[in-house]
TrEMBL record:
GO molecular function per UniProt: triose-phosphate isomerase activity
GO biological-process terms attached to the record: gluconeogenesis; glyceraldehyde-3-phosphate biosynthetic process; glycerol catabolic process; glycolytic process
Protein name: Triosephosphate isomerase
Binding annotation for substrate: N9, W10, K11, G174, S213
Gene this protein is translated from: tpiA
Active-site annotation: H96, E168
Enzyme Commission designation: 5.3.1.1
Organism of origin: Buchnera aphidicola
Location within or outside the cell: Cytoplasm
Amino acid sequence: MKKHLLVANWKLNGSIKMISQYIKCVKSCLSVLSKKNIIVIAPPTIYLSEIYKNLNNIDIFLGAQNVDINLKGAFTGETSILMLRDIGVKYVIIGHSERRLLHNETNDILVKKFDLIKKLNLIPILCIGEIEKNKNYNQTTKILIEQLNCMFQVLGKSVFRNTVIAYEPIWAIGTGLSADPKYVQFIHKFIKDYIAQHDPTSIKNIIVQYGGSINAINAEEFIKEPDIDGLLIGSASLDSKEFCKIIAIAE
Ligand code: PEP
């Protein structure tokens, strides 16, 4: 099977106690695998350093769940991309539907974040996706085009080179109702073709992953599809054994 990007998004969960046990479990699972996949753990910001210490230079990457649009200054409560880079973060998730809906993360803000992450040589994971009503009215591709176009319009046609797009239909996140893998394959192909229309070169180095109620039972059906390059896993990634099973399935 090809190489996949597997990202564990812990959301607002985790503890110091959980971290050592979790990393131990993932390390031991990786020790018997080929290590061709890219594994990323994205805990709440406060635990990034603790995870980094526990990783001890092994092949697991650190991901952040958010970043501010400012580099430094009077922005109480925020975390800058310089700080994330300083503590070993490589990937930054932006535009998660929970942040779009609950924290007013607009496309304009996301363009700034995306640009900053790339300028500092980290890798953005841009989440895009439609609500159930859009899907029912066949508006999915229209919504995705809007979310992609805001990047093209401001940052140019090669904006998606060396980046990650996470297709996360909002109706599938945290609901236990994952999308149909064939439907996801169709959408991923659409996303890649749309990006290729702007910049054919992007296609060689863009990763399009799926997120939405993935678990150890359904992961294989997604992983098998040619244009599903990885998975963004929420709830199921909180259980280290389940996350390890998903890693093993993607081998
Ligand atoms: C997510 O948080 O990005 C996600 C896909 O969550 P879940 O796997 O719980 O649906």
